[in-house]
Amino acid sequence: MFDMLTKEETQLFVRILKEELVPAMGCTEPISLAYAAAKARELLEDTPIFARVEVSGNIVKNAKSVTVPHTGGMRGIKSAFIAGLVAGNAKAGLEVLSRVTPEQIEEMKWALDTFKVEICTPEHARVFDIGITLRSKLHEAYIRIADAHTNIVCVKKDGETLFEDLPKDIERADKSALTIEKIVEFANTVDTKEVQETLDRQIAYNMAIAEEGLKNEYGANIGKVLLRSYQPDIKITAKAYAAAASDARMNGCELPVVINSGSGNQGITASVPVIVYARGMHASNEQLYRALCVSNLVTVHLKEGIGALSAYCGVVSAGAGAACGVAYLLGGGKKEISHALVNALAIDSGIICDGAKASFAAKIATAVESGLLGLNMYYNGNEFFAGEGIVKKGVENTIKSVSRLAHYGMRETDKEIIRIMLDNN
Fold first, then answer.
1. What separation in angstroms does the CA of 323 have from each of 54, 127, 201, 349, 368?
2. If I label 377, which of 24, 51, 124, 353 is the partner at 20 to 30 A Cα–Cα?
């Protein structure tokens, strides 16, 4: 047994959920580019004639191949910039492109062909780094975002620095208190009214885009392939819905998603399989809320040590988190959830992140499969033991192993992935 959470810890965990589970439209890296462009246009207060877009390699990786929503199918870095420049509403944050008119889409297409944009990757950029310089005949505006999707760290106009704060520690909830033990206790004891609004939005948004992905043609149609190729059961359905949501999101669907740890695909993966299981089991809303507390907070806990962008695929963490949420729905406690998590991490921690694109949906299906396999292993009396690969004694020590692998061990891998993606051969 362990001590009950303090009131302060409970409120901290509620705050983490509210901070991490926020809406975003489209893949979050190109949307961040659009947001920066909209802020720069707002600052310039004049008609721009030239732009320089400076992006880190990891931004290139996650913005190069995806369709930007509300653009009529435009893809890539320049498209994201143009969309924000022409039609972005900076006050809407990550929903910067939520209100685009048909006339603006036509203007975007014209600007994509005619507006001069220089795109470069600074040698000493931070992992998450976007700099936008806009020039008119009389003025120049500069906006820089670093470390997080809407975290503006530098603002300049006509050479004068109006704001600068680098490096910046973002004032966000301290996640160091998260442990599997405390997450389970929080899920057991939280007044669900405190998280209901946040989780209802996640359920509504992420299931809506999943259903859209299964209804229409997007990307590689991984969700449809799963349902057509296998005898549908709850496990196949959970994988298919999560994959379909990602396929829609990566390929221009204009529906928003609720993200987790800065990623829409992680938000989808951490939530959709749990929702599918809860509905299949006829679980109550309260049971679903508590299970989503587990899946989302486990995902946040895993991602915290890895970092926002890495060569380690983030949906591995989210797939493991989803399995923990399903374990909770099935009546599991700290023991069952810990074993399911360790098993899942041992299975697929080698999946690389080579950018946001159509194949992400297949990776989500794989991550969900591995998470559910890890759970079923435990319920069938099987597990991976300390000393086997990166598995350590105790779930928190295994999580530290994954953090070390992803944050330090895969740095050179990340650089090589970016070099391969930028190679035109």
1. 38, 29, 21, 15, 7
2. 353
Preceding amide of 30 cis, omega within 30:
no
**Which of 3.40.50.2300, 1.10.4100.10, 3.30.750.24, 1.10.10.10 is the CATH number of 174-422?**
1.10.4100.10
Identify the residue whose tokens are 């963490």: 317
Whether the per-residue pLDDT at 167 is higher than 70: the answer is: no
pLDDT in tens, 277-292: 999 999 999 999 999 9
> CA 18 to CA 29: how far, in whole Å?
20
Tokens 């910046």 map to which residue? 168
Report yes or no: 231 and 240 within 8 Å, Cβ to Cβ: no
Contact 137, 45 (CB under 8 A): no
Residues 6+ apart with CB under 8 A from 99: 87, 89, 92
Residues 6+ apart with CB under 8 A from 76: 30, 63, 64, 65, 66, 68
Which tokens sit at 47?
A: 């008609």
Task: Please give the helix or strand (H or E) that residue 129 lies within, else none.
Answer: strand 129-135
Give the start-to-end residue ranges of the domains of the chain: 24-164, 174-422
Please tell me the distance from the alpha carbon of residue 61 to that of residue 30, in angstroms, as a whole number. Answer: 10
From the list 91, 171, 180, 166, the residue with the least C-alpha distance to 129 is 166
CA max distance for the chain: 71
Span 341-353, pLDDT tens digits? 999 999 888 788 7
The reported pTM is 0.81
For the domain covering 24-164, report its CATH number. 3.30.1330.90
Please state, in angstroms and as integers, the Cα–Cα distance from residue 152 to each residue in 120, 122, 386, following that order: 19, 18, 43
129 vs 121, 154, 166, CA distance in Å? 9, 11, 12
Q: One fold for both 24-164 and 174-422? A: no
Mean of pLDDT over the chain: 90
For residue 73 the two structure tokens come to 């199918």
pLDDT at residue 4 greater than cutoff 80: no
Q: pLDDT tens digits, residue range 358-382?
A: 677 888 888 899 899 999 999 899 9
> What is the average per-residue pLDDT within 150-157?
93
CB of 94 closer than 8 Å to CB of 69: no
What whole-number distance in Å separates Cα of residue 403 and Cα of residue 316?
12
